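Posting here for the record, re: NAP.
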Amino acid sequence: MILIAAVDRNWGIGKDNSLLFRIPADQRFFRETTTGKVVVMGRRTLESFPGGAPLKNRTNIVLSRNPSYEKKGVTVFNDTESLLTELEKYPKDSVFCIGGAAVYKELLPYCDRALITKVEEAYEADAYFPDLNKLEDWKVTEVSEEQTCFDLVYHFMTYERKGK
Ligand SMILES: NC(=O)c1ccc[n+]([C@@H]2O[C@H](COP(=O)([O-])OP(=O)(O)OC[C@H]3O[C@@H](n4cnc5c(N)ncnc54)[C@H](OP(=O)(O)O)[C@@H]3O)[C@@H](O)[C@H]2O)c1
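Prediction output follows.
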């Protein structure tokens, strides 16, 4: 499973169940990377999408502890164990963990790769991605050229688990 996230300089990812920033080129990267693939998300992230609707042209899998939670177009799992059993059906590189904070943290141990769009700006946030620079078993393996969107400076980065 591969993590994919857009973070600010403090690894902030959201506030009030919404994103901190929207960069069209990053949204395109996310869409192109995940289209035709499996996306795994928390119930709050699903509900942050317009109309709470699943992402088009992708297999949408949602984690919720509520056994009666259901939504058209998504498959719900109530715990990590049953989710991981389901994910065995798919090639590892075709499954993307798309957030939010609780689900990134929960699924990090089952991921070997993270595609991180890192913005140099700091925002007020209430949801964070784990700081991979502080985790000894993760390292940066790729950094793009500097990208800009108006006055925002950002990089597309790849992190990988060491020894993988
Ligand atoms: N920048 C980015 O790349 C990015 C990407 C995605 C999301 N975000 C942001 O992240 C924020 C949302 O993050 P969040 O942490 O509040 O919510 P979240 O991770 O999207 O969803 C949390 C919910 O998932 C369910 N859940 C989590 N772990 C579970 C487990 N082990 N088993 C069963 N269910 C589990 C629970 O649902 P129930 O309450 O139904 O039990 C929990 O309340 C928003 O601000 C969003 O915009 C940012």
